[in-house]
Amino acid sequence: MSLDEFGLIERIRRRTGARADIVLGIGDDAALLQPAPGQQLVVTTDTLNIGVHFPAETPAADIGWKALAVNLSDLAAMGATPAWCSLSLSLPDASAQWVDEFAQGFFALADLHGIALIGGDTTRGPLSISITAMGQVAAGQALRRDGAQPGDDIWVSGVPGEAGLALALWQQKVLDVSRVADDSAHEHLRLRLARPTPRVELGRALRGVATAAVDVSDGLLADLGHICARSGVAADVLENALPASAAAQQCALSAAFNALRASAGDDYELCFTAPQAQRQALHETMASVAVPLTRIGYIRAGTGLQVINQEGGVVVLSKQGYNHFAGIGK
Amino acid sequence: MSLDEFGLIERIRRRTGARADIVLGIGDDAALLQPAPGQQLVVTTDTLNIGVHFPAETPAADIGWKALAVNLSDLAAMGATPAWCSLSLSLPDASAQWVDEFAQGFFALADLHGIALIGGDTTRGPLSISITAMGQVAAGQALRRDGAQPGDDIWVSGVPGEAGLALALWQQKVLDVSRVADDSAHEHLRLRLARPTPRVELGRALRGVATAAVDVSDGLLADLGHICARSGVAADVLENALPASAAAQQCALSAAFNALRASAGDDYELCFTAPQAQRQALHETMASVAVPLTRIGYIRAGTGLQVINQEGGVVVLSKQGYNHFAGIGK
């Protein structure tokens, strides 16, 4: 079944959730929203293109999930509570089945976080999904990149590098992104790439605790580098402290994982800084949001970022992040 | 000169304007904005794809202008005051010259309306521009599609159909969209397609005057049909009352124009309804915002929409609007 533009919009609209602060949702020239008093608005936009941000064979439901996840991850890094989003969907043709599967993945994640779709656009063109997500945070409470202080600890959530390992396995035709893997370790890795978990609850819990935060989308060191640049500080990362991947170990891929974990993108974990006095509070946060947090280094005065190995030497890294103009399509 | 993703963002960022309500602009995980107290938020998203929404030979500056214009037009139709926007730009390659020209057109219009770019995304892919524009309007003051009442007049701004005529002339290779036309009438038509004027001032002036409003993006009758459907009313449009095009007349194209004016899209005029008691007020509005307003029919009880010719007969129209899945690329 093929759809026209209006059939496609209707198919998506009927899935969207309700919120009391939506005065007018999809169906007018624009959405009309009632921001909460005393809150600031947090706005982010991220686009996923076929062949650049996901392999062509990625299931529609995974694309729907991930397109929203990367935006929720930005809200998480600001400590914001998700509220509304708009979706611009370019499709080469409008298959009802594809749209329904896309919507299934998209709304599965949207409903988890109470974010409502309030508008958007559907156009004909190569597959591309652009989402603008809006959240709210009390004035002065947002997490920013520019607050890191010398002496702060550097923390990271989860296990950055697993998504990059899954991507490498797909490129080597070891992992099929389009179906469930045969064993749980490979499936864990596949889901880290296909269905990243935005750390929304963690971001909210870090308000008043973290001094700076960023989400790990371009690579751990590249994104930590953004904190350093904006805060005017330097970072020492202890190679030995970087989280290990149990899944990589089970797949006998620890060496490959270790080569990727500081530089691979697409994990959507949070990297943040916090005073040493917050260590106990962060251990409690870890338990309450059920996300592993690892202390991986410290902030010092100066500029730049270095990785220090077990012997105290500085590790030289050839690639410190992911540039979307170099994309996976190459 | 070719750019990487970060060079491209920097090239756009340095052009963007300032606003006191931007707590954090481009450069963090998300923008942080301070909505004005008592205001509601108006949000719209529109995407333009090469070959679908504009010919491939369109100059970059015109693409930049138009991509923002179609979004400002939606804010205008809500009576909103533009505030902030985000830009997602997919480019097949990142040429510094192309980006500078795009930014020139984009910011020329942005600066006219005081809308600031607060974030976005640049990715590699076929040329596509997705913008989310945000505006503000006092609670309860937004223009909507659902307020038309039987007995209301139907009004339209400007001369819908001129953009459609320009598109037809381009398709017939009479008009070159990539350069200034030889005579002023053809140039007028070209600019109606390439540089539409969002009716932002008019939209704001219609608050408290119009009962319903829509922007003419898909075609006059198609968009008026949205008002009828949402308001639960019918519309009679007087064919004879539809605005004539002086430019079309100068080009000896009145017949072609008349065949298009009720159905062609892309004009970004406002179509709205208002009580007869507002006629004098609307003549004053017309003078104050310097946009022609034409009364083209009336709302009555019932459903549907008909065009009535000079003899009182009902005109049958074969095409009532523009479906983006049928696009100009076909």
From TrEMBL, chains A, B:
Keywords, alphabetical = ATP-binding, Kinase, Magnesium, Metal-binding, Nucleotide-binding, Thiamine biosynthesis, Transferase
Pathway(s) where this gene product acts: Cofactor biosynthesis; thiamine diphosphate biosynthesis; thiamine diphosphate from thiamine phosphate: step 1/1
Q: Which GO terms describe its biological process?
A: thiamine biosynthetic process; thiamine diphosphate biosynthetic process
Which EC class heads this enzyme's classification? transferase
Question: Which of this chain's residues are annotated to bind Mg(2+) 2?
Answer: 46, 74
- Binding-site residues, Mg(2+) 5: 218
**Residues that hold ATP according to the record:** 120-121, 145, 217
Residues bound to Mg(2+) 1 are 45-46, 121
Q: Which domain of life is it from?
A: Bacteria
Q: Where do the PurM-like C-terminal domain residues begin and end?
A: 149-307
Q: What does the protein in this record do?
A: Catalyzes the ATP-dependent phosphorylation of thiamine-monophosphate (TMP) to form thiamine-pyrophosphate (TPP), the active form of vitamin B1.
Q: What is this protein's name?
A: Thiamine-monophosphate kinase
Organism of this sequence: Stenotrophomonas terrae
